[in-house]
Amino acid sequence: MKTIISSFNIFFKKRDNLIAFCIILFSIIGISLNVSISSTDELWNFQNVYKLYNGFEIYKDANIICTPLFFYIGNLILHLLGPNFLSFRIYNIIINVILFFSTYMLCKKIKIPKTISIIFVIILMCLKGHIIIFCMANYNTLSLAFFVIGLSCMLKENLTKKDFILQGMIAFLITFTKQNMGIYYLLAVMVVIFFEKMTVKKRMMNLFTVLILFFLLGIGSIVYFQYAGILNGFIDYAILGIREFGEKNILINKPLFVFWILVVGLNIFMIKHMKKKTLINSKEYEKIKRVLIFSIFLTFSIFPIVNSAHFMIGMYLSWVVLGYIVNLICLHIFKREYLKIANYGLIILICITISNSFLHCVSWQENRIKDKDSPYYGGILDTETYEKIENISEHIETSKKNVVILSHDAAFYMINLKESNGKMDLPFKGNLGAKGEEGLIEEISQMKEVEILIKKKEEDMNWQESKLVRDFIMENYECTGEIENFFIYTVQN
Q1: Is the dihedral of CA 217, 219, 222, 223 positive or negative?
Q2: What is the pTM of this model?
C-alpha cells in the first residue's frame, strides 16, 4: 500500500492539474445526467434558451430578469450539440467543471497543498456542490465560475496594467451573466485596489483602467440591445422589474441566515488572529485578504432569496476561506502526519466519487428519454408527467382558441410545442416587468378568444406565482372545463 501511495504521489505532483480536472469531470458527469426533469430552474432556463433556438427574441418572448450571456452561450451549445436536454446537461457539466477546477487552482494559489486542495474540492463538490450541480445549467453558477476565475487572476503579487484591463473584462462578463453579482465583483476589485500599497495616483489609474473598460463594454452592449430591438425589454425586465422581485420574493431561511453571519464573522476573526500569531506570512496574508474581501462581497448575492441553492452560491468563497483556515490549523498541529493521512484519504475519495458517478450513468442510461426528435431527449421524465405533457399539448394544438397556461408548469408544454406566450410562460412576481402583477392583469383583460389554464388547487402553485392574477381570472371569467390538474377559463370577445 505504501508503494502505491508513493507512486501515486510522484505521478500526482507531476500531473496534478490533469488529474484534478479528470477527477472533477468524471465525478460530475453521472450526477448531472441522472436527474429527473421537474418544474425548477433547469426547466425554466432551458425554456428560455430553447425559445432563442427557435427564433424567438430574448426580453420580448422570454421574460428573463438577468443579463443575457448565459442564454446566448446556451443557444450556441444547442446549435452545436442539438436542441435537447442532453445538450443542456452537457452545458451544466462544462460550467461546473470550470467552476470546481478553477477552485482547485485558487486553492493552490493560496498555498493549500495540492493533495489537500483536491480533497477540499472533492468534499466541496460532493457535500455542498451537489446543491449547485443539481441547479443544473444556471446563470448563477456561470457567473460564480467567472467570479472564481477573476479572483484567481487578482492573486498575483505585482498587478500590472494588463491585469486591471483583464479585471475590467471579467467584471463585465460577470455583470453580463448576472447583474448583481457583477456589481459585487466590481466593488470587491475596487476595495482591493484601495488597499493596495501604491501611490494615490497609481491607485486612481488602476481604478480608472478597470472602470473605463467595464463601462465601454457596457455601452457596447446597450448599443447592441438597441440594434437588436430588445433594449426596452431589457430595461423593463432586468432593471425596472427588479424592484418587484426584491419586494415580493423575500424568502429568509433563518438558520441559514444565522449560519451566514457566523461563518463570515469566523473567517474574518480567524484570518486576523492567525496573522497576529504569525501563522501567516505577509505575502500569504495579502492573498488570503483578497480572497476574504471577494468572499464577503459574494455573500450578498444570497439575498433576497436565502434558500439552500442561493446560500451555497453566495457562500462559495467563504467555504474556500474556511478550508484555508482548517488546513493551516491542521498543518500547525499535526504537521507531516496530516499530509500522510491526506494521501490515503484522497485515493479513497477518488474511488467513491467516480464509482458513484458511474452508477448514476448506468441508471441514467436505463431511464433517459431515447426519442432523438424530442426536446426532452437525454432527460428523465416520469410516466405521469410525460403523459400529462402529451395530453395538454394535444389540447393546445386542437383548440380553436389561443391557449395560455398561467403556471410554473407552462414550460413543459411550450417546450414540447416550440411556442411562446411571452411573460405568461413564467408568471412569477418579479419576472413581469415594471408594471408587475397589475400589468399582467391589464394584458389579460385586453385579450380576446383565449383559453387560460390555471391550477385547480391554489396550494399547487409555485410560491412566486401571483395569487392576485389567479383571483382576477376566477372572478371575471367563466370556467368552461378542466384538463389534468388545470381549470380552463375562457375569455370571449
Answers
A1: negative
A2: 0.93
